[in-house]
Amino acid sequence: MTVVAAEGQEGGGTALHEIVLLTVAGAVVTAILLWIGYLHRNHKISWLTSLADWSGRRFKRPSWVALPVALFTASIICALFGFIWDVSLHIGNGRDDGALANPAHYFILIGLFGIFVAGCTAMVLPLDGYQPGPAAVRITDHWYAPVGGIVMAGCGLYALLGFPLDDIWHRIFGQDVTLWGPTHLMMIGGAGFSTLAAAYLEYEGRRAVGPDRPRDGIGLKFVLYLAFAGVLIGASVYQIEFDFGVPQFRQVFQPMLIAAAAGLALVMARIFLGRGAALIAAVIAIGLRGIVAFLVAPVLDAPVNWFPLYLGAAVVVELLALTPLYKRPVLFGAVSGLGIATVGLWIESLWINAVYPLTWPTSIWPEALGMAVPVAVLTGACGAMVGMILTGRRLPRRAIGVGLVALTVLVIGVAAANGLRYTTPQDATAQVTLTEAQGPGDGRFVTADVRLNPPDVVSDDPNWVAVLGWQGGLANERGQFIDILEQVGPGHYVSTEPMPVSGTWKTLLRVHDGRTLAAVPIYLAGDPGIGAEEVPADPQFTRPFVSEITILQRERSPDIPQSLWLIGCLVVLFCTLAMVAGITWGGGRINNSEPSGSEAELQPFAQS
Question: Does residue 355 contact residue 306 with C-beta atoms inside 8 Å?
Fold first, then answer.
């Protein structure tokens, strides 16, 4: 058995010449930045100090905050655009011809590298023994770095580490064309959580300026609201496959992820910025996601993506903040999480059922609540603790704070493990009759009459019985097709519109019902690059249900030992826990530097 794919093999790792080019480019850029940092710290250049000072005057923050945060903001927006575009290209076109062949990769790489550079810039800027705040970390005798900069650089490094690990992963296991590939989660997770580091850095700068700082104008306040909209979007990136209508995992994940993101970001925003902040952050997030969605779909003609609004969750948080619970932040965050995972999700479901291609059936709610409620309660409590850090209020005892973070990670892990459990029905088949039809474009189109055997393989209220066509090429209806089949009898379904079954399309019948997650290929284009033969769309056929992943991720190597997969996942898990530990350490260090006995009335920054 050959474990490592051949050099440049389709469906495997990146071609050697691209690896060399990327390595050389990265080394050159890194060397230039290190040289600039060396010259700055040895007073051999002044332009970096001048630029940082100008940024500080413009944004009324210390220079070691203003310039890095401006660079971070541009970088995270660049990475977000590239990320959404990249997902759309994989859905519409399929796997990449190479790391440098996908234009979206440039935006992602520049954005993630920019996040890392922004953190390093915050670390490098303070000179001559200047201590940027009481929480600053001593690097040398005359060099102190802000905690937020260190955490930001760490998050950026974690995300960048995903690139070489991703290539190694592809060489061993084959390409996993899914957002939730372990190394893919490193890239998006590092970017998403770096928004917390930016919040830390902003707080350190605000505290260093002191209470006599100039009052922020409306522009700077908008930037702060924008920051928490960024936290909300950053916490939402794990849902993107659901937003495009091509999830490769059980639907019960979607409400849990929505509740977790809202619990963390909206509670933080309300505690830090005061009345209306949760709603304002949600509205700004809608605007940002809307702009990116417009650029990706109508402008670049890629698949359409929807996104959660979070307005119901924001209303829940704002209403609970009017109660006495608000004076007990951690309890307020936990109760807000409960409200978000119940009332907030119900309100969100109205939007999802109105516009998303894959709606939420009533049967999803028992398990969805079982996963979403504990996760949202704990992420809400964690969001409250971050809000306390950013408003200068002392956290609970170390054992309680660290224990709460550890419990949150554990509960998320348990919920995810439950969500990952699925079954493929044994001895179940689909009898399909195809009828030629006129489609919206070139190529062959058909309608389908589908009979499931046995008929009760699907319940009366499944998550979906649908046909998915994808990777048909952006020039062909953006390369994506989704049709929710109409039930006309027990186990008997018919399509509602013509489906593509030619060219590069991969068209399949998808069935998701509770823990059942299975598929039947209708038409799969031949793929010589990975040795996959065409599965033809015969006029009539009966085919067994198989695990969806064997169709949606044809590039994966099926004969890799599970032990090797486990080792790879453990490496990614270790890196992820290290990042979470670093974020927790940063928050604790900042909070521990608060004056002893800092237990003043919780006062939102925007209203102080």
Answer: yes
